[in-house]
Amino acid sequence: MLRYRRDNETVSMNMTPLIDVVFLLIIFFLVSSHLARQEQQLELDLPDAATGELSTESSARVLTLNLLPTGEVSLAGVPTPIAELTERLGREVERQPSPLEVRLRSDRTVPYGDVEPVLAACAKANVWNIRFAVREERQ
């Protein structure tokens, strides 16, 4: 038996869930991009470097670690005491199997004695890919 479709019948789809998901994605990306920008905009007087390589995009996840002149450490924009740094880095290593890269941004006035415990915390958490953020040498 054949069924005939009437021309005035329209098939519609409920768009509300789709719109909800799109708005949630927009909000997520706005918040995450704001946090990433805020982390990079910390006013640090980075040391100059005459030689070195520009960091190329890789498949590694990048965590930014800021070492302020006051001795404070900030991991991914969150102030973190040195005592907790190893634990937080260890959780990041375990979270995903992809390699983890730590980008260390340190003010030029910070003595190496303050940088050394940060490097030791990275080593204890099995993070070996560490890059120092520097500025191209001024001329």
Automatic annotation (TrEMBL):
Transmembrane segments: 12-31
Location of the protein in the cell: Cell membrane
Signal peptide: none
InterPro entries (alphabetical): ExbD
Molecular function per GO: transmembrane transporter activity
Keywords: Cell membrane, Membrane, Protein transport, Transmembrane, Transmembrane helix, Transport
Membrane topology classification: Single-pass membrane protein; Single-pass type II membrane protein
CC annotations in GO: plasma membrane
A GO biological-process term: protein transport
Top-rank taxon: Bacteria
Similarity-based family: Belongs to the ExbD/TolR family.
Protein name, per record: Biopolymer transport protein ExbD/TolR
Gene source species: Posidoniimonas corsicana
